[in-house]
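Aim 2 progress update. The chain analyzed this quarter is reproduced below.
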Amino acid sequence: MLPEASVGVPAHRGGLLVRQPALTVGVVQIIARPSGLDVELIARRGVPGPPAARHLLPPYDEGVDLRVGRLDDTGRARWEYGSVASDGATWRTRTRFPTTYDQFELVLAWPEIGFAEFTTVLPLPGRDEVERGCASVWQAPVFMAPVPAGVRRRPAAGFLDTPPLENGRICARPRVLAREQDGVVVLTRLTEVGGVLSMAVESHSRVRLPVGTIGPWGATIAVLRDRDAVVLDPYEGEAGDHFASGEFVLPRPPGQVLDLVVSWPAVGLAGVRATIPLEP
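Predicted structure tokens:
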């Protein structure tokens, strides 16, 4: 189990922040916790231009990609360095900032490619809301139900392209999907982009899986459609001794509910039904 496994409070529903010829940047999601503020962004390169002027960055800084920071109370930029995944044209960054409430002044810079320094003030939930809404994944509410009788498991037919997450909107709050004594499965993000859902799921275990365990490390996620449980394949993921994560793409179902079947036999979850209300 990770040292900090908690369900946080959504602080931003996602969407584009800035579009310049050299770079477009948008929010995937921002999650507030008493322990810090997690900011996830996607940047896509356009047509590079002449180097942009530096005001907040020091003159000697020679970074190689997008810099992400915040303005402190004195107006000084405080740069943070999070995880980065890139294919050369697209950068996806996850950055942890100090605990912040009420509002947050985000700073972006990439002068080498002609992207001018950019600042924006983002409203955030207050302290009381964050402290009430944040809970350990082992203690947060969970609403599991039995899988209906006669449901058949089958693989998904075909694949959907990964949507541009920075153009989407969060359509459900993070929540615990299923839990047993030694394992818990958490929905960490659900984004809608043009009728397609991108879903991020984490699996946390109190124990290491035994050597020779067969099957995926982490929960299996299926969409319940009538009497079929359509098993989803993640388009990306990672795993460690006590943790696994995956991201999935699926069509948004008709109506306002996403019905899932969650299973993780290695920790005692043979299969439960998890229902997620979808926001407009």
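The CA atoms of residues 184 and 277 lie 20 Å apart. The chain has one helix and 23 strands. These observations will guide the mutagenesis experiments scheduled for the next reporting period.
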